[in-house]
């Protein structure tokens, strides 16, 4: 699973990165976590408000830091 945090390095961006990593580890996922701070790359995803979470190329969250429970639901593999 490829996880990308889109943001310029603000406190919320860092909080989303930490929370996403915590949720992925709690679920026992194998993942690659990447921080994307280049504005052109962020805009290529169509994101206008950061922070944003991209899971396998799809924007799942934009403009907020969801609670850990919500992040786990987003990252939970489909069965």
Query: What is the level 1 CATH name?
Result: Alpha Beta
Q: Provide the succession of SSEs.
A: EHEHEEH
How many domains, in number, for the residues?
1
Number of helices: 3
CATH architecture type: 3-Layer(aba) Sandwich
Distance between the termini: 15 Å
| Poorly predicted regions | none
- What is the H level of CATH, i.e. the homologous superfamily? Glutaredoxin
Count of distinct strands: 4
Q: Which percent band covers the strand fraction?
A: 15-25%
What structural category do the secondary elements indicate?
Answer: alpha+beta
Radius of gyration: 11 Å
The largest sheet is:
4 strands, mixed
**Sheet with the most strands: spatial strand order:** 2-1-3-4
What is the CATH topology assignment? Glutaredoxin
Return the average pLDDT rounded to an integer. Answer: 94
Shape: globular
């Amino acid at each position: 699973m490829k996880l990308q945090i889109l943001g310029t390095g603000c406190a919320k961006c860092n909080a989303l990165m930490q929370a996403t990593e915590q949720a992925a580890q709690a679920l026992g996922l194998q993942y690659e976590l990447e921080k994307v701070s280049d504005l052109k790359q962020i805009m290529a995803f169509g994101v206008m408000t950061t922070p944003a979470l991209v899971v396998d190329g799809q924007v799942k969250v934009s403009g907020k830091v969801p609670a850990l429970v919500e992040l786990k639901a987003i990252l939970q593999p489909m069965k």
